[in-house]
UniProtKB/TrEMBL annotation:
It comes from Alkalispirochaeta americana. Coiled coil: none annotated. It comes from the Bacteria. One of its GO terms (biological process) is phosphorelay signal transduction system. Residues 9-126 form the Response regulatory domain. This is Putative two-component system response regulator.
Length: 363
């Protein structure tokens, strides 16, 4: 600790050159070598920011800007660990000392300087400050380690959820390209709907988990080639609730967005969707974006029980469902961006031309 104290950066402020020289010699005699002196109090703030001192020895009675004003200036700086200020003053009055403490002084030394008192107060103040700096640095390191570990755990969980979503698609006889087409299509719509790039990137990450809840649907229902019974539809619709449950419990924007989409992407603009029967703008915009491209992709993909619809036929249905199933503004946007949507379909085309069982109800 001794070497650390001796190497501490000390900023000395006094308008009298002689006083600075005396102070410097006194400190140097005790092994302090990292010393900076300044006479013009108007330069203190700039110098403070430049050298980041561990201690400021400050005269109170100076022209231009007295010690009180300098302390107020230093207190306004945004710094993680503030250097302690020890005022050097010939003013022994209670009011002047009280004002100094109110302005931010940590301690004071009366003039004329007594060497023993100076050395004791400088050392004591530096010991406390350097210990505080070390604790602050340790806390920052621990905070960083905790955050890194938290981020790592979050990434791990996200990977697990992504894999569950992909597993749900594979169980549904899907190659996995469906979720890529949906996520990129939804992000494209969002970008042109005015979302910022960061939010669009988050949607790109969250949208692939829209059907993650299918992992909890029995195979005999999920893979049934024919029409589902009313009871089977009731079970099938639960995949939205299952997905939302899988994605809950994390205080994280990405998980919140993914949960929002998983829960609400089968809601309809007119309120006839599921699971909560939301209508209009009460349906989260993220889910409305995913719904349009999800249905379009389902219609234009081959199913075990049907051929793929043409882009023209699927687009007509999307238009027809404007104001019923879909947000009218998003349908208009989808119509305008159709060439780019089709380019996304080509970029992430199925390799085996075999797609998931993804049933669509227009009413």
């Amino acid at each position: 600790m001794d070497a650390l104290i001796r190497s501490a950066r000390i900023l000395m402020v006094d308008d009298e050159f002689t006083n600075l020289q005396v102070l410097r010699k006194m400190l140097e005699s005790q092994g302090y070598f990292n010393l900076t002196g300044v006479q013009d109090s108007r330069q203190v703030v700039e110098l403070y920011q430049e050298i980041r001192p561990d201690l400021v020895l400050l005269d109170l009675n100076m022209p231009h800007r007295d010690g009180y004003g300098v302390m107020e200036d230093l207190q306004s700086l945004d710094v993680a660990v503030r250097a302690p200020i020890v005022v050097l003053t010939a003013r022994a009055g209670r009011d002047s000392l009280l004002q100094a403490f109110q302005c931010g002084a940590r301690d004071y030394i009366m003039k004329p300087l007594d060497m023993a008192e100076l050395f004791a107060r400088v050392r004591t103040t530096l010991e406390a400050h350097l210990a505080h700096k070390m604790l602050h640095a340790q806390k920052e390191t621990l905070d960083w380690m905790v955050q890194a570990r938290t981020d790592d755990l979050l990434r791990t969980r996200m990977q697990v959820i992504h894999r569950l979503g992909r597993a749900a698609e594979y169980r549904d006889n899907e190659t996995g390209q469906h979720v890529l087409r949906v996520s990129h299509g939804a992000a494209l719509l969002a970008r042109h709907a005015g979302w910022g790039e960061t939010d669009c990137e988050m949607l790109l990450e969250a949208a692939p988990m829209h059907d993650v809840g299918k992992i909890g649907i029995p195979d005999k229902i999920l893979l049934k080639p024919g029409a589902l019974t009313a009871g089977e539809w009731k079970i099938m619709k639960r995949h939205t609730l299952i997905g939302a449950d899988l994605l809950s419990g994390e205080d994280n924007e990405l998980f919140h967005l993914a949960r929002e989409i998983a829960l609400a992407h089968h809601e309809k603009w007119d309120g006839s969707g599921y699971p909560r029967g939301l209508a209009g703008e009460s349906i989260p915009l993220s889910a409305r974006l995913v719904a349009v491209v999800d249905v379009f992709d389902a219609l234009t993909s081959v199913r075990p029980y049907k051929d793929a619809w043409s882009v023209e036929a699927a687009t007509r249905l999307i238009r027809d469902e404007s104001g019923r199933h879909f947000d009218p503004d998003l349908v208009a946007l989808f119509d305008r961006l159709l060439p780019e949507i089709c380019e996304i379909r080509q970029r992430f085309a199925d390799q085996n031309n075999h797609s998931e069982v993804h049933r669509y109800e227009s009413t």
